[in-house]
Amino acid sequence: MKERRFVRELLESKQRIMWLSFVVGVAFLFLVIRLWHLQILSADDYRAMSENNRLRFMPVAASRGAIMDRTGKVLVSNRPSFSLAVIPQEVKDKEALLTLLSNLLGLDRANLAERWEKDKGRAKYYPIVLASNITRDQVEIVEENRLRLSGIDIEMKPVREYTNELLAAHLLGYIGEVSEKELDLAGFEDYNPGDYAGKNGIERALEKELHGSDGGRQLEVDSRGRVLRTISESYPSVGNSVVLTIDAAVQKKAEQAFGEQAGAAVAMDVTNGEILAFVSNPGFDPALFSGKMPEDVWQGYLDDKRHPLENKALSGQYPPGSTFKMITALAGLQDNLINESTSIDCKGSYDLGTSTFKCWNKKGHRTTNLIKSLRESCDVFYYQLGEKLGVDKIAAAAQAFKLGAPLGVELLNERSGLIPASEWKLKRFGKRWFHGETLSVAIGQGAVLLTPIQMASMTATIANEGTIYRPHLVKRIVDADGKTLKESAAEIIGTTSFSKESYRLVKKGMLAVVNEPGGTGAGARMYDVKVAGKTGTSQVVKLRDSKKTTPYQFRDHALFVAFAPFDKPEIAVAVVIEHGEHGGAAAAPIAGRILKAYFDSKKPPRKEADASADEDEEEEGVDENNEPGGSNVVKEPRLSGEATHD
Prior knowledge:
This protein is of the alpha+beta class. The chain folds into three domains: 2-41; 55-240, Penicillin-binding protein 2a (Domain 2); 248-294 and 312-633, 3-Layer(aba) Sandwich (Beta-lactamase), CATH 3.40.710. The protein has 23 helices and 23 strands. The radius of gyration is 35 Å and the shape is elongated.
């Protein structure tokens, strides 16, 4: 009996030992597998986590390249700006820290939290920018509370300084923080949240040249965030600088000439396509876009009926009005429908079928030839010529000047304008072209639309008699040492087939517009330089009751194009005054001031006192028709019987 009990106990003991051995074996196997997982499979991950606990990366932003005018005058440079950043790995209580920051600095807590969440997928030792362009007072508050703000750091970043404030704002553009959408785009691989990039104008178009390469330092820190040593360091590379074709002095005079009027002006070198002035008025303050835009300022921009944020010189599309008559005239000369002696009798209107097309001069211009038709801007002359030509021949002449398509200037968002033709209407509306529509097109109305830069190009091509240069704004790109990396050359994008004689006659008519009795463009006349030009007035709405006051947004646009000197053209100018009503009264004097500024810039420097006196005189100068600067442009008294409508 005892033996059986002993055997049973022995067997039970062996079973317990076996189970215990099995459990120990399984536990040991699990331990081995865990060690293998930790030391072999996850070694890199845990090594990175270890590094994160003792490393901090401090980015060093590169300075953007400067932007200068053709004479080397700096238009855009850099100034230091401070950003509030956080190192996530050093923050124990995120919510408490955000609340403290909001209370101390007066920042929106929700915005701070949102910016933190956007970048939470990054390495914890990499700083997240919570607020950009903070004030020096806020920087001082952070430093005073450094012990309470564990993980918070102040970064210094260069932001843009516009040395001439609003000068050429639409051309230069502005910078802002890169968006999440931009960070996902090709070309933004090296950008980080909180970095600045060009958003508009030259800043955007030449972002790759201007941006430079950021640097940074990888630091070893202790548990309190104190720097122990620098592990690695890379230095930032300054961006390349851009030299523009514009002349800051001419640009300034052009913008001053507009005053409070809305519109655009483009001045272009007729021999190579360089843009000498590029105006869109009113402007805006580009410096405001690199930080938090004051809400009242932003709303003011949006509510302004003059649309200050629109680049009118590049994207504004306007009926060219009578400035388009040169195109119709060239088409008629090429088709042998008119010559220098061809004349018509303008009685103030022209009948076509059951429709009556009125001339701006209700009494009529009476006997009118080509030169007089341009000088006094006779509509009836071009009604009759347009009817004989047909819309497709007028469209072909305009397209020969590369009108109706973007000219390819360096800036983004250039509009194409519109040159209507019978095929265009059929495709667009599914309807055939009617003869009556051609008459409006012949005088630059109807569906015809041009941008100011196209008007300047058209005028330059007439001035140089047929060579179409691509308008360009960038003269050269230089590195930080001033070495030229790239220089822009004149690019011919087309030539016209109109004869020299045709150009001679049209230019003769343009000379008469400015310099002869009855000419509509006397406001651009200069006493020492022969100016040739053409006025234009384009309707915004159909004919209205002249006895009632027309609201601003329904008034006609005023236009003027010109080139000078007449004998050897150097510069072409196009001016559009939105809702300015009459080109001769509103636009021509501004073109005159631009031309005067250009030719003054070519003269030898004068004594400072004399130059200041001239500037004061120009600011006060207003002629008898309240045309800004008129007394300084029109060096001769107005001639009796002079037309002023167009």
